[in-house]
Every structure is written in C-alpha cells, then in structure tokens.
Specification:
mainly alpha, single chain, elongated, disordered C terminus
C-alpha cells in the first residue's frame, strides 16, 4: 500500500502545483519500481531453487531407474528358466523340476514430489515454456515407471497364488512372516490344469518384468538428458529412444557406457547427439 500525503500548504502558483504533481509521480514510479524489482528478485530465487530441486530429484530418479532395471533383469532371467522347464516338461510328458525362484525384489517408485509441489504452488509457471514442456514429458515417463511397479507387484502376487498348490508344507502358510524363510515348492505336485495356470502366471510375470525394464530405460534416457542440460523436448525424445536402442544392443553395461551415471549434476554437458 502506497501512502500519498497531501501538501502541508497549498501551492501558490501554477508552477508550484505542477512541480508538486511531478514530485508525487516520480515518487510513485520509484516505489512501484522498487516493489517490482523485489518481486522479480523473489521470482528469480524461486526459479533457481526449483531448478536445483528438480536437478537433485532427477539424479535420484536416475539411480531408481537403474536399480529397477537390474532388479527386473534378474527377475526375468530366473522366471524364464522356470518357464522353459515347464514347457519342456509338458513336451516331454514328464513332471517339471522346481528351479530356484526369484527372491523378493525391491522396486522403488521414481520421485515426482518436487514437480507436483511446483504445479500446486504455481512456481512451475516461472519456467520458460520450453522447459515446462520437457518436464511434462519427463514426469509422464516417471509416472509410467511408477505404474509399472504396481503391475510387477500384481503379476508377482498372481504367480505366487498359482504356485500355492505346489507347497510342500501347506501349514507354513499359517506362520507369519514364516520366520524369514522362503516357502518350498514342488511343481511335480501340480496336476495338468494347475501346471497350465502356473505356466501362464510365469509367462505374464516375465512379460511384466520386460515391460518394467523398457519403462525404466525410457525414464533413464530422458532423465539423463535433462540432468545434463537438454533444453528442448526434441533432444529428450531423441535421448529416450537412443537409450532403448543402446540397451537392446548391449544391456545395462552399454547403457551406462553411453549414458554414465553422474555423481554431480552437470548442467553444462551437451545433450545427446551434440558435441561441445
């Protein structure tokens, strides 16, 4: 609120009147300019803080995506071996062997709290339009990876249910949490219909794990580009598909060789496909 105080005495001449009016106008302009400057500085501080927070969250999500890729790889490898044994047993008209099942995998959900708070508070509007667009695509990829964690949990539960008839000691189900020991299964105890359901559950779990890998590879690629200074949505899309192509050709090692995990954010690093 700007206070304009009346003059202590009336202007004697027209010149004094206009001089007083000019003084008031200059004072108002200075006050408004100072107010706008303070607001601009505050918004700049908010923007810099938001960019730093998004960068830190991005580096965390790179680690999350990589850990989820590795967990899904291990899960798919173990499940594929058991699925192959189930198929071979059916073709050879014999009882299947029970191979080691995957240990409980720890999947993490990518973080998106910084972006959510920025949208709710309105600070995301401080970002340039191009930056806002790239973050929208990024967090769509993050949400897709989050959804895939739920899908993995659901397919794992379906597989566990299909395996229940093969428990060697059904009474162990009454012990919670089973004293930290895994349940023991014997697939030879299953009849033909149970074996079919178990095989389908294994197949669905394999497919879900494979999809989990692709979702997290996409997330890793686009997040890596943004952490390393990508300034356009086109660069992000290019990095996303390049990450998948590199992974399909050489797996996690090739992915890390092309897109190494940063210890510290490097905003000055050029985006994929460009040279310094």
């Amino acid at each position: 609120m700007l206070d304009v105080h009346p003059p202590h005495h009336s202007p004697n001449t027209l010149r004094d009147f206009f001089l007083h009016i000019a003084t008031i106008c200059v004072g108002l302009l200075i006050a408004i300019g100072l107010e706008q400057s303070v607001e601009w500085i505050h918004h700049r501080h908010q923007l810099h803080q938001l960019e730093e927070d998004l960068q830190a969250e991005g580096i965390r999500n790179l680690h999350v995506a990589l850990d989820n890729i590795r967990s899904s790889e291990q899960r798919r490898q173990v499940l594929a071996a058991q699925y192959t044994e189930l198929l071979n047993a059916e073709r050879e008209h014999r009882k299947p062997n029970t191979l080691p099942l995957p240990r409980d995998q720890n999947y993490s959900r990518p973080a998106y709290s910084v972006w959510t708070v920025a949208q709710q508070s309105g600070t995301s509007a401080l970002l340039p339009r191009e930056d806002a667009q790239r973050y929208v695509r990024l967090y769509r990829a993050a949400q897709s990876a989050v959804d895939q964690v739920e899908a993995l949990n659901a397919s794992g539960a379906k597989r566990a249910i299909a395996m229940l008839p093969s428990l060697t000691d059904p009474a162990s189900l009454q012990i919670f949490p089973n004293h930290g020991q895994p349940f023991h299964y014997d697939l030879s105890l299953l009849d033909a219909e149970d074996l079919r359901q178990a095989r389908d559950a294994f197949g669905e779990d394999i497919a879900t794990a494979r999809l989990g890998i692709s979702r997290n590879v996409y997330l890793y690629g686009i997040q890596w580009a943004i952490v390393h200074g990508s300034r356009s949505d086109e660069d992000n899309v290019r990095a996303l598909y390049e990450a998948m192509e590199v992974y399909l050709q050489g797996g996690t090692n090739a992915l890390l060789a092309r897109f190494p995990m940063p210890e510290v954010a490097a905003p000055g690093t050029p985006p994929p496909g460009e040279t310094p």
